[in-house]
# Entry
Amino acid sequence: MTDRALAVVRAGALTTVQDQGRPGHAHLGVPRSGALDAPAAALVNRLVGNPPGAALLETTLNGCDVRPRSTVMVAVGGAPCPVTVDGRPVAWGAPVRVPAGALLSVGTAVSGVRSYVGVSGGVTVEPVLGSRSTDLLSGLGPPPLTDGMVLPLGTPTAPHARVDVVPHPRPPAELVLRVTLGPRDDWFTTAAIRTLTTHTYRVSSASNRIGLRTEGPALERALPGELPSEGMVLGAVQVPPDGRPVVFLADHPTTGGYPVIAVVRPTDLPATAQAVPGTPVRFVVVRRR
# Structure
C-alpha cells in the first residue's frame, strides 16, 4: 500500500474532492462541477506547489480531519477557520508542513461556508471524463468523504510557495451579482424585472452546490404554463413556481423547464460559494439581451 495517501478521520458535514471540473460535456447531460470558489482553490494549490488543476478537498461549514501517511505540505484557504496539527495551532492561508501520521484538523468556518485543503501532490482519485470532481447531482466522480476513507495522493512536482503574506478575499457581507437579462425575461412582467433589480434578496439555507436559492419577493409571471426543457448554463437565474430566483452553480442540471430571467457574470460566481444563509443579494443589470 502506498504511503502517499490521506486517511479521513472526520469527514465533516460535507467534504468533497474537487478540481477545475469537467467543462464541455453539457451536450451529454454532464454538469461542469468543480470547486465553487475556484480562485480560493487555485490559490491553495499554488501555495503547496501544485498546478492549478490539481484535485483538493472542499469542506462545508465544519471542516474535516485527515491524517497523511507521509509528510506533506498543506494549505487551507477559502473560508477562514482554525487549523491545527496534532492539536497545535498552525497558519491558515499559508503552506504548513504536516508530518506523516500527524492529525490535520480543519475547523469550523469563522466566516464564509467552504474551506479548501490543498495537499502537495494533489488528490489522485480516479478521474471521470477528465476530472476528479465530485458531482452531487449526477453522482459522477468520487463520493463525498466518509470517516475511514483513504485518498491517494500524487507525487509533488514543485516546491511549495515561500511567502510572508498572501491576500485572501473576505467572504461577502453582501452579494452583488451582475446579470444579463434573458433569455426568458419576456416571461415576466415589467414589475417583476423591476423587483428583481431593485429589491434585496437573501441567501436561503436551502442553498447548495447545485444552486444558490434566495428568499424575498416573488417574481410575477407574464406568461402562464411551462417551457419545454431547454439547456441551462452556469450562473443561470432560474425562477421556479414559487417565484424566488435560484442561481445555478457548479453542479446544476444541464436542462430545465423553468424560465431563466437572467444570467450572472462568471466573475461574480465565486463569491456565492462563501455566502452564508441570510447574506443580502442584489441583482444588478449590466446588459440587456
Observations:
- The chain is about 5% helix and 30% strand.
- The first strand starts at residue 5 and ends at 10.
- The mean pLDDT is 95.
